[in-house]
Amino acid sequence: MTTLLITGGAGFIGSNLVRMVASAGQYRLIILDALTYAGNLENLSGVIDGTNVVFIHGSINDGDLLKRVFSDYSIDAVLHLAAESHVDRSIASAAPFIETNVTGTLCLLEAARAASVGRFVHVSTDEVYGTLGPDDAPFTEETPLQPNSPYSASKAASDLLVRAFVHTYGMDCVTTRCSNNYGPYQFPEKLIPLMTLNALEGKSLPVYGDGRQVRDWLHVEDHCRGIMLALEHGRSGEVYNFGGYGERFNIDIVHRIIELTGADTSLIAHVTDRPGHDRRYAIDPRKATSELGWQPVHSVEEGLAATIDWYRNHSAWCESVRSGAYLEYYAKHYGTSL
Ligand code: NAD
Ligand code: DAU
Known about the structure:
By secondary structure, the protein is α/β, with parallel strands linked by helices. The protein has one domain (3-182, 217-243, 277-297, 324-333): Rossmann fold (3-Layer(aba) Sandwich). The chain is 42% helix and 16% strand.
């Protein structure tokens, strides 16, 4: 059976990807995750079996560990999702983003190359393209990189390292660039889970600036299908954009969450805008459709309603994340503290 190394598999997208791939049973999965604040083993409860789905606690910055993982588990391909992913945190402190997203990606590329891994899928973001005006055409794979936040700059740097490893060493790499994801298991620092949990708890809903920024929302399951199609059918050296044809103003998303949770609109609080806030993202995913046969299947309306139901029906997960109890999960189940 083909063995995949999934980095960042305890995070939001990584854990959805692990669940999806494990349930299909076609691949053996080795998950490597450093379990930062964003990594939550509860996202993977019931999935890790130590045989077909193995969890390893460790960092992509640890070259010796990577060498052992590639050799001990005979890794055939890499799905690289590990990252510092939150823009606001990168504005508060950029250095961890360079360490993980740039140096960590370099370390992983070097280890994968030394192990002659078959394929390396690098999961990146539409934020590397910068920001759009209201009438601009959506980002294509040819749009110049113009990252505006320390987060997106670090992701753009990692994309360029991947490109260089293809060009210089002939490594087999594919890069994916996706728009804003939403769905189960997303850490409640991001817009949709934060607003949902605050609305359910009757807390303030902090909308940055006028709330007229636009994001192109894609359900995480659609993104995960895209990553697997890139692994199986992508052409080496190519970039594939994934987006949900789901452009919405932030304020409209917040109002819809209020309707779906039955909260009161008086909870909305317009707060100071994010510095350097990108005004609009929109993706043209036609290359992924024509070359990979990829299409999003979830509409924002249906996907958002299902997501809010998920948070409502998983109060134990929400409480654990809100209280920080999830950070104790590793010690409880593996017998040693992190
Ligand atoms: P996340 O923050 O939820 O998860 C990141 C995971 O990486 C966590 O489990 C964390 O513990 C792990 N990690 C961090 N540093 C590590 C290290 N040094 N070694 C090993 N593991 C480490 O992020 P996410 O939202 O699931 O995003 C996953 C990937 O997808 C990221 O590369 C992100 O840039 C990209 N992406 C995210 C979105 C989105 O909307 N969330 C959209 C497009 C692309
Ligand atoms: O576009 C893909 C990117 O989407 C990913 O690469 C990032 O990892 C992911 O975090 C996300 O970045 P954003 O900055 O767009 O996501 P966030 O959920 O932080 O914010 C979405 C929008 O909502 C953005 O315009 C800022 C706004 N916002 C966010 C928060 C947390 C608010 O108005 N209030 C908030 O409290």
